[in-house]
Amino acid sequence: MAMIQNNVFQMPTMGHNGISNKVISHNNNGFHIPIINDYLRTSSVTLSSGFKMPVVGLGVFRVEGKGMKELIIHAIKIGYRHFDCAAKYQNEEELGDAIAEAIQRGLVKREELFITTKLWNSDHGYALEACKDSLRKLRLDYLDLYLVHFPVPTKFTGIGKLKSVIGEDGILDIDTNISLESTWRGMEDLVSKGLVRSIGISNYSLLLTRDCLAYAKIRPAVNQIETHPYFQRASLVKFCQKHGICVTAHTPLGGSVANTEMFGSVSCLDDPVLMGLADKYKKSVAQIILRWNIQRNVTVIPKTSKLERLDQNSHVFDFELTKEDMDLIKSLDQNQRTNLPGKYWGVDIYQ
């Protein structure tokens, strides 16, 4: 059963100097955020599977080449334990090499890490083979979390090929012979085989999430979605949390420069209200946004390839937004999605 009721969400309160000095408890979503020096390493949420997932992680989308090792090693040194990747990112091998080196150097133990990767669209009928391929590339014996990347089964192109086949009509070749229920059965088998500890979904709408809950023997532990001040998705977030599904924001900063470049979307990082709050709290806009998500019980995996921002994104536990400021950010919602794969697929999968 999901650990959502009778669990304690612990958040630091502020002393006169703005630094946390005690803990107040909130009945909520299984979060445990201890106030100790290594808060980044130890702050976690208890998933419905019973395993703990760090509240803040590092997403490695678009992190490539030699920069990966330096980034991951530095992240581990400053306390990151949660790393999010995907087969589609095509950098699992680089992440695996970095993790192996960190373990070999004694910087971290495997059991202290939380590694997530994802099943790509073209592999929906081949969850076992795809998972084993990811494990091989990551140099791991098991995954902490395996997600269905999109609720969109597409034409199979071979394990590791990860193509999005576009038909002659210019539209993504969606496979109508594979149901999301059968995909989920394949995910559940991975748990029974000991290859995966927790399974979840990504980019699922409220109704698709409801359907998954109805047919699941093992309920999804996580729904990883785009959510940020311009796209808050309160109904979906509340529905997931009500049913014991942890919400993770995969685009917690609105995609920043990456989504602006790829999809032409507008980032909330330049919002004047958020900039004003950043000045008020003596924090960056990114830190304000990450803290806002955390205070509504949403875990975050901001992406960056810059060491300075990696450090900055970790400093979100030493201050607390007031209720008034949380409400102010709530008023910024524009229902504006920034991650728009339909631009390349020729079809809006969210309609």
TrEMBL record:
Segments traversing the membrane: none
SUPFAM superfamilies: NAD(P)-linked oxidoreductase (SSF51430)
Designated name of the protein: NADP-dependent oxidoreductase domain-containing protein
Pfam families hit by this protein: Aldo_ket_red
Protein species of origin: Penstemon davidsonii
Keywords: NADP, Oxidoreductase
Signal peptide start and end residues: none
Family: Belongs to the aldo/keto reductase family.
Cited InterPro entries: AKR, Aldo/ket_reductase_CS, NAD(P)_OxRdtase_dom_sf, NADP_OxRdtase_dom
Keyword field contains Transmembrane helix: no
Residue stretches making up the NADP-dependent oxidoreductase domain: 69-333
PROSITE patterns, per database record: ALDOKETO_REDUCTASE_1 (PS00798), ALDOKETO_REDUCTASE_2 (PS00062), ALDOKETO_REDUCTASE_3 (PS00063)
Highest rank taxon of the organism: Eukaryota
